């Protein structure tokens, strides 16, 4: 009985830990949850884990911002892929503007960027609203 309980706790611990760390998508095969394009350009990739533990991938930080703004889920954690080649927290990352991102939202994570996540959110939602009009 103790062994079974220990095994259950170990599995639960690993599941929680996995939800707290970023993982690579299947590059070039994983579809963006917002626009359905394939997540292939690492420089613009983004991901999040929802409150229920579902992992969601995006091909553009703007797609993640629109997906969240539309209320399609709530992010427990979110990441973007940095120019240094690592997943970093999307909410504390800095971004450069006017980049040729896959969906044209124009933001890319960069150490010396002048924009923050709130700018990505506003820019993405504004652009998405203009497309609907």
Class computed from helices, strands and strand pairing: alpha+beta
Number of strands: 6
- Shape by Cα distribution: globular
Distance between the termini: 61 Å
So how many helices?
Answer: 3
Main beta-sheet annotation: 4 strands, antiparallel
Spatial extent as radius of gyration: 16 Å
**What is the H/E string?**
HEEHEEEEH
Strand order of the largest sheet: 2-1-3-4
Q: How many domains, in number, for the residues?
A: 1
Parts with pLDDT < 50 across at least 5 consecutive residues: 4-17
State which percent range the strand residues make up.
15-25%
Helix percent reads 25-40%
Provide the residue-averaged pLDDT: 87
Features:
single chain; globular; alpha+beta; 133 residues; 4-stranded antiparallel β-sheet; two-stranded antiparallel ribbon; 32% helix
What does this entry look like structurally?
It is a single chain. Helix content is 32%, strand content 17%. Helix 2 crosses helix 3. About 11% of the residues have low confidence. The protein is of the alpha+beta class and 133 residues long. It has a four-stranded antiparallel β-sheet with strand order 2-1-3-4. It has three helices and six strands; from the N terminus they run H-E-E-H-E-E-E-E-H. It has one domain.
């Amino acid at each position: 009985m103790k062994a079974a309980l220990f095994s259950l706790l170990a599995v639960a611990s690993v599941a929680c830990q996995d939800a707290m760390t970023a993982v690579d998508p299947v590059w070039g095969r994983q579809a963006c949850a917002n626009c359905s394009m394939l997540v292939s350009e690492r420089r613009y990739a983004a991901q999040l884990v929802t409150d229920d533990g579902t992992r969601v991938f995006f091909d553009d930080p703007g797609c993640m911002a629109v997906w969240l703004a539309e209320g399609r889920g709530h992010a427990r954690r979110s990441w973007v892929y940095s120019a240094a080649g690592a997943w970093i927290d999307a909410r504390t990352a800095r971004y450069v503007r006017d980049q040729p991102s896959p969906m044209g939202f124009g933001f890319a994570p960069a150490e010396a960027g002048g924009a923050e996540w709130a700018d990505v959110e506003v820019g993405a939602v504004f652009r998405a609203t203009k497309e609907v009009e």
